[in-house]
Write a structure and sequence with these properties.
With 301 residues, the protein is α+β, with helices and mostly antiparallel strands. It is built from 5 helices and 18 strands. A hairpin with a 2-residue loop joins strand 1 and strand 2.
């Protein structure tokens, strides 16, 4: 369970609301009365205005990022989770946001190839509460290459989130694509940090490397960790891999064909949930036609 929220800030600081666990039921009140939400076909979209994006960047200062890291401890890092000590991977980063309870928290996301050069992939539960169409999240900021308080490639405010309608309505298909805004006088995301390839419809059975920023000790979200293993088919259109990354790693990419020399691979799933905090195995959604529709909506955004 996450620790109790601290008091005295604009929004309470707490741990990871989802923590790679089964999600709770819907809350009574929406978190984003100002956000524009729409659903078309298989995809539910939430957009954020320029003013909301500017507020998100102002909110997520380096000090606040460190503060939310200190506020949660999910126990010891598991034996399968290793700190990434190879070539820096700027396309993977922390995704900070305020959840539907008004609590500061984070997930993991990765920049992927896209037509608009501005798409990141993560888990749907990092964008909105499942089975609750009104409970979307706010102040979402992607920090590529985050490492021990450093933001070497800046901060990118999210201007739109795309999730399956099945997630908003029934907590099915835990995958999301997000479009980030290009900073003033800056580069588009993947021009600045590079991109991972992405593939759809890949069957289980590949060796994958799963990355994330878990809130386990001693890293507490400040370092990129990884697990590696062969994926297996799982029920309910999911795959699983031997991995004990804890809460905060949600949304981190599963990279097939990962090359440690280049830091590149192909996203074939994302961290969704484990058997409790840091439980093994890790489950991730199969990137099927629904995931493709979500991605396509984002790269057109």
């Amino acid at each position: 369970m996450p620790p109790s929220p601290s008091r005295g800030t604009r929004r309470t600081v707490s741990g990871l609301a989802t923590a790679l666990l089964a999600l709770a039921g819907p809350l009574a009140a929406p978190a984003l009365p100002a956000a524009a939400a729409a659903a078309t076909g298989q995809v539910s979209t939430v957009t954020y205005t320029a003013a909301e994006r500017a507020a998100a960047i102002s909110y997520w200062t380096p000090a606040r990022m460190k503060q939310v890291s200190r506020a949660v401890d999910l126990g010891p890092t598991g034996p399968l989770s290793k700190p990434w000590t190879g070539k820096a991977i700027p396309s993977i980063g922390r995704l900070f946001f305020v959840d539907s309870r008004g609590q500061d928290t984070w997930c993991t996301a990765s920049a992927v190839t896209s037509g608009n050069r501005s798409v990141i992939m993560t888990a749907a539960h990092c964008a909105r509460l499942g089975s609750s169409p009104v409970n979307t999240y706010s102040d979402i900021v992607f920090v590529p290459g985050y490492a021990k308080g450093k933001t070497p490639y800046g901060r990118y405010a999210v201007k739109a989130t795309m999730t399956p309608r099945s997630w908003a309505q029934d907590t099915v298909n835990d995958v999301a694509a997000m479009v980030v805004a290009t900073p003033a006088n800056g580069k588009r995301l993947t021009d600045a940090v590079g991109a991972q390839k992405i593939a759809f419809g890949r069957p289980a059975g590949e060796r994958v490397t799963a990355f994330g920023y878990p809130a386990t000790t001693p890293q507490r979200g400040e370092e990129l960790l990884y697990c590696a293993g062969t994926s297996q088919r799982a029920p309910e259109n999911e795959q699983r891999v031997p991995c004990d990354l804890g809460g905060g790693a949600s949304g981190g990419p599963w990279l097939a064909g990962f090359d440690s020399a280049t830091g590149k691979g192909t996203v074939v799933s994302v961290n969704s949930h484990g058997n409790g905090d840091g439980g093994t195995p890790m489950y991730g959604p199969t990137l099927d036609k629904t995931a493709r529709a979500v991605y396509d909506a984002a790269q057109r955004g």
